[in-house]
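Still learning. Any example?
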Amino acid sequence: MLNTPISSGIPAIDTACHSLLVGDNVVWRSTDHELYSTVCLAMLQVGREQRWPLVYFRFANHTAITSAADVQVYHPEPEKGFEHFISMIHRVIASHGTGGVYVFDSLSDLQEMYFSDRMIGCFFELTCPYLRRMETIAYFRLDPSAHSCYATEPIRRTTQVWLDAYTCAGERYLQPLKTWHDPEGNTLPLFHWDADTAREVQNSAIESMVRQSPGWNEMPSTSERQIDVWDTALMRFEDLQRLSQAHSTPLEQIPELQRLWNIAERMLLSTQPRMLGLIHRYITPQDIVGLWKRMIGTGQIGGKAVGMLLSRAILRKQHPHIHATLENHDSFFIGSDVFYTFLVENDCWWDRRELHASPQNESACRIVADRMKTGRFSPQIIQGFRDLLEYFGNAPIIVRSSSLLEDNFGNAFAGKYASFFLTNQESAERRLQKLLDAVREIYAGTVSPEALAYRRERGVLDQDEQMALLVQRVSGRRRKAWFFPDAAGVGLSHNPYTWNDLMQASAGMSRMVVGLGTRAVDRTQDDSARIVAHDHPTLSPDESRQHRLDALDLQTGRLTQIPLRNPDALQLPEILLERDWRRERMARQMGITSSARIGLEQALGSSELPAVLEQIGKVLEQEYGTPVEYEYTAQWSATEPGSGYWQLNIVQCRPFQITTTNGAETTHEVFDQLESDSILIRCPGPIIGHGRHQQIDAIVWIDPESYSSLEESRRYVEAERLGQCIQTLRQQGKRIFLFGPGRWGTSTPSMGVPARFGHIRGITALGELDWMHDTLSPDLSLGTHFFHDLVEEDVLYLALRRSSSSINWNRLNEDGYSWESASQGQHSDSVRWYFPPDDQEMWLAADPAARELAIYLK
């Protein structure tokens, strides 16, 4: 059936095109909507006679093409994003099967939604071949004066038929620009369309009159047509913004500037109503123009970039004295359209889309990711990357994901996408290659099983998840062959773990380290970050200390760990040194060198750093309307011996929607009335999360003794089996309390269970035991990516310390079972589960504020 001749329903068009063929996509470039409606109605009538499906995609503001009852009308809602728009259209096409007539509203109206000709070009390159494979006839319209080459070139390259249509002096004319099956060699004459006939125009006066009529403005190759509508709108916005400044005219007195300001916010920053409200209050027109000039490609800059800019803008207005001490940001932004264009040009879009149906198919995910890692970029984008690298020179940078959904209200995507440090110490070409590799790796991360599963769990698998990128200068300074800041951390405006009654949750807290902040946001293997309550910074929840710092090795170009032993070699400021003068004097008398101990205690106890962090958290929470998490670096600037100030850099900020209630009002009564023989587990804290009193169905645990006796390779196997156990129970609707030895999510099996969060997703509460070996202690992972997963899933976290917790091991072991998979024939001695007796219920009562938890039978 493909390529079978078929009439358009209008003999004049058949003459001009030498007939249409089944599978043709026909582009009509015309300003005359009535003319386009006429040809669409004629083609629909042909389809009606063929008994084909008749489909109309309605999304533009112009009058409807048809209201016929037998034409199925679909509204693909482009305002919900490109991914939603194109996915719905493709689902409709698939649902109708082969054959059919498809008519589309004017594609030019999509500019009102996307302000990007590149995205219109991508839409056509994806949809046109699909319609052809489905053996359809499809009609599209373009406004002749609306588009740059970024739309017209891919459309002309992809379509089978392109017709320019004119209405001039009451007459209609046709000029075929492309008819791929033209037996005359595509001679492109101008035709006069008169009723059912099409005659070649022979008179030059008529030809020039028609071509100069509305619908033709300039050659497609003119410089104006090389500029995307996206840039055109922003250039106009910049001109009006300068005019407003030059004449000191208030913005509200220039309606066109106000209109373009609203458009620019949606073009570059966000379409989320809640975020747009914040953006409009704090991001100025000058800010928007400035970030546009630091962009590569078009599209939005993504959630992570918006959070960074917005937090700084809030401080600029609400706390100018703090903003004045911030390190200047000179970041670059890689627009989200670059990602989609990359997928289309490298033929990865369809494969990526198909993964949505099976996000846990790791083999398929790996195949698509590998293809993306070898993809190519256009020369224009490559030049943008070169310009970026030339600007930074040999300064280290970090390339960070900044997807449209990332760091937004309701979806953090914490740790789901990678970031890459680039030390920039090699040749220009080598630096470019490493940047390209980093970008491709982040793009490939969008099809990882973990990222796809997260999107599915959060209900955003079909939402517009384009990947923008944020390229930041790494904060810090060179210290011989190393590069790192004095300190860094992740702050929470609300402290979910007030381990001392003097502390106020509203003061916030930080997870702080010496060196790069990677050690603060990731769960370290056998090291600890400093947990800091901003209102009582000298109080620590335990005796753990940081033993190594993360730094960039400028010689190898890698992230490395350095022991905190030699302050002189690390070139740390005095405020990060803890001196024991008595010990040093005794060491000198004995002829022994004794270095000061490196730590944060002096910085926390004798400087304004905790108070400043508390102020930052409070104002950001107030403006966001919810607790926030923010990442920062801190550099000590000594003004004179013994004094100075901290220069901060806010590198990220996102909503942190933690629930902090104490649970049921009767929780305290539950603890008072518990009988000792009914208690299975009792814990005095730390307990972090949403207080609750609820029934649970199962306790699952990793037996410490069995697990510690396993070889390292076997521990990875046990993590997989644990995941199978949890998901089996979850499918049965069970509410689960899970606990085990060491740190969950660690990459080092000697420190805990190397289970990814995807393995244990769906549990109610999670406990960490400290009795696998003597040096092991639970890690208060506040502020880490792992902690974000717990918060978003409303999972309660608790540390089960041998010295203070009570576990009825006899009851659990006697009535519990080793997990066994009947379907896979797998058995595990270390993965165990417990169900309550048939005549009893199992309940969990937790009051984080009172630092008390119990699991009991009743």
